[in-house]
Amino acid sequence: MSQDSRAGRMAIGFLSKIWHLVAGLLIISLLIIIGFVGTNIYVLAQNTDNLWLSKDLANKQADIILVLGAGLDEKGKPSPMLAERLDTAAELYRNKAGKTILLSGDTDQNYYDETKAMHAYLKEAGIPEEVMDIDPDGTNTYNSVTRTKNKFNAEKVIIVSQQYHLYRALNIADTIGLKAYGVPADQHPWEGRDLYEGREFWARIKDVLQSHSENWPLLIKDGLNAAIDWSGKHINRLFLKT
To answer: Contact at 8 Å (CB) between 125 and 87?
Structure first.
């Protein structure tokens, strides 16, 4: 066999290995994409029929009306998005949809207290202080929903947020066995909506994994939660928390 023929066969073999590697990576990438898209479709489809108007839940007398934090403006007041949630929660309470209002938000940052601003907003709107409760450790949607059950002992809850965000919150509640109803707070257009909805694609995947991690081996569970905590801190530098 000539030297040129041997070199040609080696080159063909090398290219064949590269092709198989590339094809394998493409297949894995495609499966990951399908998994990501499928997870979002699952979360959206699961709770499409669990979105309600405030009037639909009148006299429901749920244990808690849960308001999820959505950031403050430069003056320390609720952001337009959060104000919509608080207005909706006030309407629900007046309609006797729930017994108490739980204000869940972030108070970790210096001079930043979502729950205090939320409380002041509802007090000014005429909601009695004695029916408002505060969860200062609602640093993200997963924590807010799970703590509503585990810390505040709710069995039936009404969750108030924008519609794009409710699907994820309701999915978490369903996974942990918390009976929940979603009420969208979408009265007005607000700045950055497309940005939030784009971020939600990845947040749904994260929370589905975290919600189901309770049944995983401890090492995998702790590793996942550590990765989520790390990524969350970095993501929140780019996006307001929801």
So the answer is: yes
pLDDT tens digits for range 159-217: 999 999 999 999 999 999 999 999 999 766 656 666 777 788 888 888 888 777 665 44
User: For the chain, what's the residue count?
Assistant: 242
Distance CA 193, CA 34 (A): 25
Nearest in space to 171 (alpha carbons), one of 58, 161, 63: 161
Q: Collapse the DSSP code of 33 into the 3-class scheme (helix H, G, I; strand E, B; otherwise coil) and give the result.
A: helix
Residue 164, CA distances (Å) to 29, 44, 167 in order: 26, 9, 6
Instruction: Say if residue 101 is exposed, middle or buried (CB neighbours under 10 Å; 0-12, 13-18, 19+).
Output: buried
72: tokens are 């403050």
Measured CA to CA in angstroms, residue 66 lies from 105, 221, 223 at distances of 11, 27, 29
Half-sphere exposure of 55 (CA within 13 A, CB side): 0
- Count CB atoms within 10 A of the CB of residue 200: 20
User: Which DSSP letter does residue 155 get?
Assistant: S
Side by side, which strands form the sheet with 179-184?
132-135, 98-104, 62-68, 156-161, 179-184
Q: If 0-12 CB within 10 Å is exposed, 13-18 middle and 19+ buried, where does residue 236 land?
A: middle
Q: What are phi and psi of 218, to 5 degrees?
A: -55, -40
Instruction: Note the pLDDT tens digit of each residue in 107-139.
Output: 866 667 899 999 999 999 999 999 999 999 888
